[in-house]
Amino acid sequence: MTIWDRIRSALAPQNAVSADVEHQLRLATGALLLEMCRADFKVHHQERNSIAQAVKHGFDLTAEETRELMDEAETQADCAVSLQIYTSLIKEYSTAEQKVRLIENLWRVAYADGELHDLEERLVRRVAGLIDVSSKLVERIHREVAANQPMSGDDGVEQPA
């Protein structure tokens, strides 16, 4: 590393996130959303659509980039032994706004199939605790999301998780 690289690095904003860390944050977010989809042991197409929309719009991705990220996140989620692999990364590198958006998206995925399962609710609250989002804020987000998510009871089950 040259002296100029060191100076540039020292002058760079401390909250700047490298492209690799940004990619890992996207994967962590996708994997947590997929874990929510699987939390009640049923995978609904509405939940997967909700995840795709959250990832696409949240990270400003094309349809192809969204598919690639979801495929990679699914592979990651299949191999993960703990949520802390994802939550520690999110806790360290995400802004408060990004953490709130994640909690909102987790609630949206939980409600996407038209019902909220106890395991889904526990997962949201567990993730929130691991990324330092207060329970008061989680409850406020929950009320807002629930008010905007009609309960349909549609049984569009894709496959068991």
The proportion of residues forming helix, as a percent range, comes to over 70%
Number of helices: 8
| Spatial strand sequence of the major β-sheet | 1-2
| Average of pLDDT | 86
Distance between the termini: 47 Å
How large is the share of residues in beta strands? under 5%
Main sheet overview: 2 strands, antiparallel
Structural class given helices, strands, pairing? mainly alpha
Uncertain spans, ≥5 residues at pLDDT below 50? 153-161
Query: What series of H and E elements makes up the topology?
Result: HHEHHHHHHE
Outline type: globular
Rg from alpha-carbon coordinates: 17 Å
Number of strands: 2
How is this fold's topology laid out?
Layout: H1 3-11, H2 19-38, E1 43-44, H3 45-59, H4 63-79, H5 84-93, H6 96-111, H7 118-130, H8 135-147, E2 157-159
Antiparallel strand pairs: 1-2
Q: Could you explain how this protein is built, in words?
A:
This protein is mainly α and 161 residues long. It is built from 8 helices and 2 strands; from the N terminus they run ααβααααααβ. The chain has helices at 3-11, 19-38, 45-59, 63-79, 84-93, 96-111, 118-130, 135-147; strands spanning 43-44, 157-159. A two-stranded antiparallel ribbon has the order 1-2. Helix 2 (19-38) packs across helix 5 (84-93), helix 3 (45-59) packs antiparallel against helix 6 (96-111) and helix 6 (96-111) packs antiparallel against helix 7.
